Amino acid sequence: MTERIQEFLRHRRAEGRDTEPCLVVDLDVVRENYFAFATALPDSRVFYAVKANPAPEVLALLASLGSCFDTASVAEIEMALAAGATADRISYGNTIKKERDIARAFALGIRLFAVDSTAEVEKIARVAPGARVFCRILYDCAGAEWPLSRKFGCDPEMAVEVLDLAKRLGLEAHGISFHVGSQQRKVKAWDRALAMAVTVFRDCAERGINLAMVNLGGGFPTRYLKDVPPVVQYGRSIFRALRKHFGNQIPETIIEPGRGMVGNAGVIEAEVVLISKKSDEDEVRWVYLDIGKFGGLAETMDESIRYPIRTAHDGAEMAPCVLAGPTCDSADVMYEKVPYMLPVTLEIGDKVLIEGTGAYTSTYASVAFNGFNPLKSYHI
Ligand SMILES: *Cc1c(COP(=O)(O)O)cnc(C)c1O
Questions:
Q1: pLDDT single digits (tens) 291-328
Q2: Residue nearest (by alpha carbon) to ligand 1 atom 3
Q3: Nearest atom within ligand 1 for CA of residue 181
Q4: What is the C-alpha separation between 28 and 34, in angstroms, rounded?
């Protein structure tokens, strides 16, 4: 929570514009985060994962600082271009693309594409001749609080086949990628992934395919309720792992931070709509906010991400609460299995501040479920 955000919220309240929840992102914090990544991993190019927060202000700032962009759709590519990035600084990192979208991206100048299957390689070879591809390998994401499952990537053995086909079809087999899972709190998570990466490099070399690049993905955490290691520790650990596995032939590397770039830059101000109990004996109060899973807090799914929540009563006695959103869907409950501690003096109408919400909130908000507006956001 920065002084600039506090100031912004004070004005908003004074002007009576605080009728709906809103997200406020401090761009100074995004700038600091960018430099922290660039310093901690000086030999890696930064490809900001646009999906984490695609606000034009964030993209323009990062473009001006020299960042590259990892995109997942033609719309995201166009947003990065509009923000001032040139096409050679944009990757199309989604492994699941329509052939006509690959063609659009190619026409816009994009030459770097992610794949994890031979079918995707065939699409790219048809409509993006000569482009560079990197193959994503599966990783089990142990230690991540928001794991990415088996949806993306293939086994290392299959990656060799995929890259081999790419070469035979006239594409440039450029390298491999992986993602160690989002909100990865273990700095050593990259070590095992790089051990897998080096085997793909070797097997490819035996077939005469010389890979040049390892995309280290995202996964860098934001501080929520628990402490997380600073980015310099990730940098050191990743460099050690690169040395260990690649010796003095360290390939070109890129990182794709999303959450770690913008998460701690944002705060959501919300309002308590109702506090109630389900019976007189009930020990747990239900606290309903004017924001929930459909208003931008989708990452509370399975109670994975636990945001720090601040109130004007902090310091008072705390009691366990079920925290829920305002919509008429019973899935719109954020924390119930593990109740959330909130001050007993909290009242209906109070404002609360939900911290660490700069990533994966504004674009997760539904369009108008139950008539609630999408989350308003301000980037200052
Ligand atoms: C979402 C995503 C990222 C960003 O992940 P974070 O954990 O938010 O850093 C990076 N790369 C790819 C391919 C992604 O899909």
A1: 999 999 999 999 989 999 999 998 999 999 999 999 99
A2: 218
A3: 7
A4: 10
141 is catalytic: no
- CATH 3.20.20.10 in the chain is located at 93-257
Percent of the chain scoring above 90 in pLDDT = 95
Between CA 359 and CA 290 the distance in angstroms is 19
| Third-level CATH fold of 93-257 | TIM Barrel (3.20.20)
The pLDDT tens digits for 123-171 are 999 999 999 999 999 987 776 776 667 889 999 999 999 999 999 999 9
Residue 42, classified by CB atoms within 10 Å of its CB into exposed (0-12), middle (13-18) or buried (19+), is: exposed
- DSSP secondary structure of 294-327: TTT-GGGGGG-----EEETTTTS-EEEEEEE-SS
Superfamily of domain 3-23+264-379: Lyase, Ornithine Decarboxylase; Chain A, domain 1 (2.40.37.10)
Q: Tens digit of pLDDT for each residue in 180-217?
A: 999 999 999 999 999 999 999 999 999 999 999 999 99
> Residue 339 gets which letter from DSSP?
E
Residue 213: phi and psi, rounded to 5, are -140, 140
Q: Where in the chain is the domain with CATH 2.40.37.10?
A: 3-23+264-379
Ligand 1 pocket list (CB less than 6 A): 49, 51-52, 70, 93, 179, 182, 217-220, 256-260
Q: What is the pLDDT of residues 24-73, one digit of tens each?
A: 999 999 999 999 999 999 999 999 999 999 999 999 999 999 999 999 99
Which of these is catalytic: 22, 68, 135, 328?
A: 328
